[in-house]
Fold these 3 entries.
Entry 1:
Amino acid sequence: MHPIASNHFKIIGKVNGIKGLFILDTGASTTFIGLKHEEKFKLKTQSSVVKASGAGPDKIDTLLSKNNTLSIGGWKKTRFPIALIDLSFVNDALESVKTLPVDGIIGADILKKGLAVIDYEKRYLYLKNS
């Protein structure tokens, strides 16, 4: 994990074999990728009636992509669903503190699946393959 100016941690992960930059967000229930990156990560999407909400705008439209492979370090999960949302409000906030934009957000769904342990002092995310 690498600290950034917004007081978040960024991590590098791969979705469908393609490297991306993500924020680790323990308060996000779901893992998200920005709508702009649908083609980059080879995501096959379908419409979703679920609306996302959180620290940004209320009731954000989402798309859903099923059956993806996600890997972080040596941890890997297959057939994993990922939601797509407009992350422009997140990246605008990051830009305001002179931080590079991110491709997505790693949420609690990944942390639960990987039985995550976060070592803030050493800045390390431990995930267990099951």
Entry 2:
Amino acid sequence: MDYFLTEEQQFMKDVAKDLAEKKIRPVSAEFDETGEFPWEIVKAIAEADLFRVFIPDEYGGMAGDSAIMNMCVVTEELSKVDGGISLAFAATGLGTFPILVSASDEQKAKWLPRIADGTVAAFALTEANAGSNAAGLATTAVEDGDSYIINGTKQWITNGGEADIYTVFAVTDPARGPRGLSCFVVEKGTPGFTFGKKENKLGIRASATRELIFTDCRVPKENMIGRRGTGFITAMKTFDRSRPGVAAQAVGIAAGALELAIKYSTERKQFDQPINNFQGLRFMLADMAMKVESARALVYSTARWIDTNPSEKFTAYSAMAKCYASDMAMSVTTDAVQVFGGYGYMKEYPVEKMMRDAKITQIYEGTNQIQRDEIGRGIVAEVARKAK
């Protein structure tokens, strides 16, 4: 289908597709097996200028007025081949959004050009006892002269240990609840900032996931993003913009699995004919294709709406895109394994990896149960607003 991509977006898509096929596909299984972070591919993504697609033009980027849509287009293409390796790009976008939505011009000028050039970033909100409940953070930041001293840990941080720039959320005013959170940029190498072990995961294994440890970590006051106490708002605004990126990752994983299933169904023969001659299997492929296309339509529509209406309240629709696309990805990749039959269960074929990779899209950046709650609250509030 024609999703009316601009000439620039079509170029981004083509560049990402070419990179994924030539650089990622040949090594995807190897990185999944070893869990190694794909630095050579990150370098290739940077050299292709793809980190620039969500960065404003004035800071060395090429986002124009389509940062979210650009990010979704590139994320989908990379994820069609490897949903884990694509996270080096996509999670850098997540780590960048707090700077984009809340930083001063001076702060943007300090960090955004580096990210545009390929510096990897990470977003650090989740803790052991504060996952879906983002307001329940225990990490603290205590004011001390011209600095803040951060103590605490963050858990399951994508790009953790590999990124150089981290947007970190900590409690500055414990008595104020959600209004007591603030956001800071902490750079790798800052004294008192270390990393825990690299997690051994079910899927997205080429993506680094680590604990972040802050022990009397002194951060300059000028590294606070936004005003003191506005960290929760920054985090929620970030999720509103980043969740379509997770959705695009899910669409990409599912679309890649569908492409492989169709190809396999043409090549695999049973009873002296290709298995896609059997109506039961064609029905499966048809359902898979409908799910992918409908999810992509929702994701792209949501991304465009956010780009063109940045002051609107789009939380519910961002949640819809993430929730629907990730549920779809789990369904389609599971069906892809079924199309491959016994071969699909074997690691020498990529669809079992796609099924493993798809699962996390239902969990991170807010579980799909949280997404449904956000959607429900949003649509009820919209009806109430219109009734006034």
Entry 3:
Amino acid sequence: MIHEMFPYLCARDAGAAVEFYIKAFGVTEKFRLTEPGGRIGHVELDFNGATLMLCDEFPECGSRGPDAYGGTPVTIHLHVDDADAVIRRAVECGATLEREPGDHFYGERSGTICDPFGHRWLIGHCIEKVTPEEMQRRYNEM
């Protein structure tokens, strides 16, 4: 039986990533484990009740951030109250805008950023409740 699932990211500078997420997304740090040399082995961030885990790169264990692979195939979907405001704040904090916020057929206003550590975030908020059947109909029409 599955109890929970946590995204676990690796970044070339986990300390700077924590600061970015705090400023850009308004999250809080729950705790961190740091090696004597300063490398972060584990940190947990509270995204309003959802936990994101993060660590520095550990190449000796095969753990590297997206930049080591030329980017990421993964997108994290962050659902917020005001996507435009969160995207704007993230860009002001150093993220790269990949897709401007816009209204979409599936009932969400969203846009995409890439954070300074190579992780992609789809940030959106609900603008309309749409059934799966209606979504499929709209998708077919596109």
